[in-house]
Amino acid sequence: MKTVMEMFSLKDRLAVITGGAGLLGTKHAEAILEAGGSVALLDLNRDRLLATSDRLRAQHGTERVLALATDITSGKSLSDARDKIESYFKKNADILINNAAIDPKFENKPGAKPLSRLEAFPLEQWNLELSVGLTGSFLAVQTFGPKMAATGRGVILNIASDLGLISPDQRIYRQPGVADDMQPVKPVTYSAIKHGLMGLTKYVATYWAKEGVRCNAFAPGGVFNNHPQEFVDKLTPLIPMGRMANVDEYKAAIVFLVSDASSYMNGATLVFDGGRSIM
Question: What is the CATH number of domain 4-278?
Fold first, then answer.
């Protein structure tokens, strides 16, 4: 019988993290490494990926960190990454964290309806964001999941959001003196992707359950990252705890979800949002 601390240990476990050079992807990697595991970071941003990799290698050792520039919308790019990971670590991935997403930046024309609004949202942008946030997660599962099933063990974690449970409150994005039909909003893609990830989670959880592969989702609330004070002042009254999350606040939850500490948890969504989704 393992002790509680042994159940949280990730010693000899290898985690693949998509979007591994982003704000939360980096924190997921830190959590895995601090719990004794190794990480393979996949990201398209080569400069940010290299900087993240260099820092983590300096802290945890070169043998425990691999960074690969990877296009997760391409099955070929993912399978190439998988082969390199297996060659480098001499083992298959034990953990897959689907974290990659696009944070859209719109350049709106003066006087034109904001492109974030539903009626003006470009189809190309819809396809682009879903190709990364949802299709990319499916392709990553398709690439790494079968070998987990073949070895009889594995954990897949899809990073969703509290906005996969509730609708965005568009009032927090409102700007004074702007007509209602010209107000900026949280884009439709965010909700569609995060809800979709929860559906993917439930499907995969039953698909490989008998092969020892678990799949869960994580629904975090907003992380404070130097947001404008005006935005923070609008958002925090919607959160019972009265604040956004700190950047390191999710790390222990990630370790729980991908370790043996959650061994009987499958197809579930762990909500970590300061209580916002219960309001």
Answer: 3.40.50.720
